[in-house]
Design a protein that fits this description.
Chain B: It is a multi-pass membrane protein. Chain B: It comes from Nocardiopsis aegyptia. The complex is a heterodimer of chains A (about 400) and B (about 280). In chain A, α3 links the parallel β1 and β2. With about 400 residues, chain A is of the alpha/beta class. In chain A, strands 1, 2, 3, 4, 5, 6, 7, 8, 9 and 10 form a 10-stranded mixed beta sheet that branches. Chain B has about 280 residues and is mainly alpha-helical. In chain B, strands 1-2 form a two-stranded antiparallel ribbon. In chain B, a hairpin with a 3-residue loop joins β1 and β2. The chains are: A alpha/beta (about 400), B mainly alpha (about 280). Chains A and B meet through α1, α4, α5, β6 and α9 of A and α1, β1, β2 and α10 of B.
């Protein structure tokens, strides 16, 4: 949404300058072997951290705690507005081996992360420096499908893509993805514009697990999504701006991210409902990673480790209301709620520690699927198939 | 000697600027539009003219739609902007510059924010439709937001000042005695407008059309904020192909197709307007 035109112009200019009459050379590099990379790296006492907006409280409490405990200063920048444009911003610099301006960054499991790994632009993590991660990360966050063995990334926070609906307008309980295809809601249904998100819903509707999907599955899913669009059921395809229309009744139901709905209900007193549909939903994860041109990798990996301290993870979750990769935070939060019993904050903590949106149950996790992982060539095919739906 | 060089020296920075930041990237884009490959393996120059065929055959609908939306928004800008420019130029009196400032005032707010605020205006229960629905003038299910109408309205709103200013500039310079002379020659108010004021102001309209039609046709913000299904403009496609799919060859070739179409449109428009003005002189 808030993409800067300068970025486009800059990208174009950079692309043009990188051009010669014989095209652009391959940009893949071999990732440096883990032990060689870390052998000569020293702590510098400061690091630059690129994150998404509203992904930490305005006091930056966790970073203050980090500085108190380690003496490392953090320059925190809310510079990631969208994975694709952020990738476009750092890719030319990484291709030249230049500093990106960041030592630590947060990106979701998606095509951009796959490209960064494939291009060899991320530092292989030295897991001996991540004891908290080894001890406290939940099992499903220890060997993620998009980064086997978590060689390059560790999860920052996760969320569910499910269905949100506004009970002021919808007079029945919404339980399934098929409800998004119900002609009764013509012109009142929101879908996401992101190729992977929307593809997953088409796949799940057809009973296909996204992670194992094939080209035939994609085509069948695209067909279903096209029918839904051409029947006039879809009002529009949204990036991340579905909350306002859902609140004021322009949308009655929409694909949505769990934390956004939780935050909106907690802050605005709305009564929006969020469901993990019967057919299942997808679990996405935003990950911490270090670009290979980082100036302070040691400081960055220390912060990674620090964020896995259960007390710290709990504080972070209290503000952002997404799913923490540290399951033990639920117990810590319940303890905090007991300690603050009777106060407003105690109430909020109690409610959150019992919410399946923030701490999904085992049963919920059973219904949550991973995204499909694709190499660059297949990504193109996949994206054009689904952009044809959303960019009609 | 010096006198001969001075004008060139003065214009040199502008030329250098254009050469470096316009010609070089455009040349690069042109070369890029003929390559094949992907961002991982790199793009090889294969003079793949097929990129252009792909671009047009896949996106002809969005291209035509963009030109259509741009044309609608431009016409709307003339309809709203011309009377406004006329009024400020002839009736503005001592407050002319205040009125102009008011017209420019929206530009003090971010483009994206201004467009998003239209969502609140056009929402199903918003400022416009809410009252109309409550008095029963408009059926309950009627929607404006996420439609072609909303996109065109947004485009017209965002680029209106670019139409008003050039028209105002021309009318403001016009000698009011020309109108008096027309009246002396028994022209009524309408006649005077059609035969005298309008022809004189046409260069302003022409400039205004260029300054609205080109950016509205290639805009992508309005369509993504105010559009729904089947409202995608070619700007959205370029943005997606370039920044999301990293498909630089296709993105570049669409860009050149759009540029070509806009240039053809503008030249034929200039020709048409030119001959009209020649006919005016002969009449």
């Amino acid at each position: 949404m808030t993409r800067r035109r300068t970025l486009q112009a800059g990208g174009a200019a950079a692309a043009a300058l990188a051009l010669s009459a014989c095209g652009v050379g391959g940009q893949q590099r071999d990732p440096a072997a883990s032990e060689d990379y870390w052998a000569d790296k020293e702590q510098t006492g400061s690091l630059r951290f690129a994150n998404w907006p509203l992904y930490m409280d305005s006091e930056r409490t966790q970073l203050q705690q980090f500085t108190e405990s380690t003496g490392i200063e953090v320059d925190y920048k809310e510079d990631v507005q969208e994975a694709a444009s952020f990738f476009g911003q750092i890719q030319p610099r990484l291709a030249n081996g230049d500093d990106t301006g960041y030592d630590l960054m947060v990106l979701p499991n998606g095509f951009e992360l796959a490209k960064l790994i494939e291009l060899g632009y991320l530092v292989q993590l030295d897991h001996t420096r991540l004891p908290n991660y080894a001890e406290y990360a939940g099992e499903s966050y220890k060997n993620t499908a998009y980064d086997p063995g978590n060689q390059f990334t560790v999860p920052y926070t996760s969320g569910i893509t499910g269905i949100a609906y506004n009970p002021d307008y919808v007079d029945r309980e919404i339980t399934s993805i098929a409800d998004l295809w119900d002609p009764e809601f013509e012109g009142k249904v929101g879908m996401m514009g992101d190729a992977q998100e929307i593809a997953n819903f088409g796949l799940l509707l057809n009973g296909v697990n996204p992670a194992d999907s094939t080209l035939e599955d994609w085509q069948a899913a695209a067909e279903k999504l096209r029918e839904q669009r051409d029947a006039g059921i879809v009002r529009a395809y949204y990036d991340q701006d579905f909350i306002q229309p859902l609140t004021n009744g322009d949308l009655w139901m929409t694909m949505a991210w769990s934390g956004d709905i939780y935050q909106q209900n907690a802050e605005e007193g709305t009564n929006l409902k969020f469901v993990v549909p019967d057919e299942g939903a997808t679990l996405w994860t935003d990950n911490l990673m270090i670009p290979y041109t980082s100036q302070a990798p040691v400081d960055a990996i220390e912060l990674m480790n620090f964020l896995y301290d259960p007390e710290i993870a709990t504080g972070l979750t209290e503000y952002i209301a997404y799913i923490t990769p540290v399951p033990y935070a639920q117990e810590v939060m319940a303890e905090w709620a007991d300690a603050e019993d009777g106060s407003e904050r105690g109430e909020a903590l109690r409610e959150m520690s019992e919410s399946s949106l923030v701490f999904p149950t085992e049963g919920d996790y059973q219904k949550l699927h991973n995204y499909v992982n694709l190499e660059a060539d297949a990504q193109e095919e996949f994206a054009s198939l689904f952009h044809e739906i959303t960019q009609s | 000697m010096n006198r001969k060089i001075t004008p060139y020296a003065l214009v040199l920075p502008a030329w250098a600027w254009l050469a470096l930041f316009f010609v070089v990237p455009i040349g690069g884009m042109l070369s890029l539009s003929l390559t094949t490959g992907n961002v991982i393996t790199g793009f090889q120059q294969t003079f793949a003219v097929g990129n252009y065929v792909d671009a047009v055959s896949t996106y002809w609908e969005q291209i035509l739609r963009s030109l259509f939306y741009g044309a609608c928004a431009t016409v709307l800008c003339i309809a709203i902007g011309y009377p406004m420019a006329y009024w400020i130029a002839f009736k503005g009196g001592p407050y002319k510059s205040t009125y102009l400032l008011l017209i420019l005032l929206p530009f003090f707010v971010s483009f994206v924010l201004r467009t998003i605020s239209w969502r609140f205006l056009l929402s199903d229960t918003g400022v416009v439709l809410g009252p109309l629905k409550s008095i029963g003038l408009v059926p309950e299910g009627f929607a404006l937001l996420n439609s072609a109408t909303a996109v065109i309205l947004g485009l017209a709103y965002n680029f209106l000042p670019f139409m008003i200013l050039p028209i105002y500039a021309v009318l403001e310079r016009m000698d009011p005695r020309m109108v008096e002379a027309a009246h002396d020659l028994y022209a009524g108010r309408f006649q005077a407008f059609v035969r005298v004021i309008l022809p004189v102001s046409l260069p302003g309209v022409f400039a205004g059309v260029l300054m609205t039609f080109i950016p509205t046709s290639s805009d992508y913000v309005n369509a993504s904020v105010l559009g729904g299904t089947h409202n995608t403009m070619i700007g959205n496609v370029i943005q997606t192909q370039y920044l999301i799919n990293n498909n630089y060859p296709i993105a570049s070739s669409i860009t050149f197709v759009l540029m070509g179409l806009l240039l053809i449109g503008i030249f034929s428009y200039a020709r048409a307007l030119g001959t009209e003005r020649v006919m005016e002189v002969h009449a």
